[in-house]
Design a protein that fits this description.
Layout: H1 6-9, H2 23-33, E1 39-43, H3 49-54, E2 59-63, H4 67-76, E3 81-82, E4 94-100, H5 109-119, E5 120-131, H6 136-141, H7 148-153, H8 159-168, E6 172-178, H9 192-208, E7 223-229
Parallel strand pairs: 1-2, 1-4, 2-3, 4-5
Antiparallel strand pairs: 5-7, 6-7
């Protein structure tokens, strides 16, 4: 049985990440990873900010463990299919699964990863972002780090632990990178607008340049971004 963390059972009072995370960056990344028309599930879709950006290019489905968020998402993205229970999806029915800070809040991440793998077709892609406790963002921000509350309540997995979990779930790890330092200010004495431009630039450049996938080192980001693939020879 899959279980969820306290945040997922009772989301009241938890800050909505939609306005804090670089949603546009993740939408561009998804477009790099799968062709137009692909069937994409946003696992932990929140209020639908990422779904709204993906809708013009993909057949999008969303799921969030919080009923209030599902209701909100149906209002903000009425053309997306918002699921009450993602586990009812047929096996091998998805081309890509994206999750921005959804998996780190799951009580049994390995069981969830295994169940998600079953929903992907052979060769399908899983891309997820999880707050990076070993990243430069946390070292610079200290107690003001954006995921500080979760770090105090949960044990956030490290990069090595996420790699192990993904492989144990049957995926092949394609790459692990950072999503950029998007939560300025980081240092005193420099205008916030200038810090935003400077600290976000590496993450922006790697998706502007014609690269097949992002390549920044994992520590240069607020979140770890894990891109993995279900083996093409895998059975559904």
């Amino acid at each position: 049985m899959l279980t969820y963390s306290a945040r997922e059972r009772d989301p009241a009072g938890v800050e909505d990440d939609d306005e804090r995370l670089p949603v546009w960056w993740y939408a561009r990344l998804v477009r790099r990873l799968c062709p137009k028309g692909a069937r994409v599930l946003d696992f932990g879709c929140g209020s639908g900010a990422l779904l709204r950006r993906l809708l013009p290019d993909f057949e999008v489905l969303g799921y969030d463990p919080a009923g209030a968020q599902r209701h909100r998402c149906r209002t903000t993205v009425p053309d997306a299919l918002i699921l009450e229970d993602w586990r009812t999806l047929p096996a091998a029915s998805l081309d890509l699964i994206v999750s921005v800070r959804g998996l780190e809040r799951v009580g049994q991440p390995l069981a969830t990863l295994q169940a998600l793998a079953a929903k992907l077709r052979p060769g399908g892609v899983l891309v997820f972002a999880a707050a990076n406790p070993g990243g430069l963002g946390r070292r610079l921000k200290g107690a003001r780090w954006f995921a500080g509350r979760e770090a105090a309540q949960l044990r956030l997995p490290t990069q090595a632990e996420w790699r192990m979990l993904v492989r144990r779930a049957g995926f092949e790890v394609v790459t692990v990178c950072g999503d950029g330092l998007w939560d300025a200010p980081y240092v005193r004495g420099i205008p916030v607008a200038l810090q935003r431009a400077l600290f976000r630039m590496p993450a922006i450049l790697q998706l502007v340049w014609p690269l097949g996938r992002p390549c920044s080192v994992p520590t240069l980001g607020e979140c770890l971004v894990v891109i993995s693939r279900k083996p093409s020879h895998a059975y559904a």
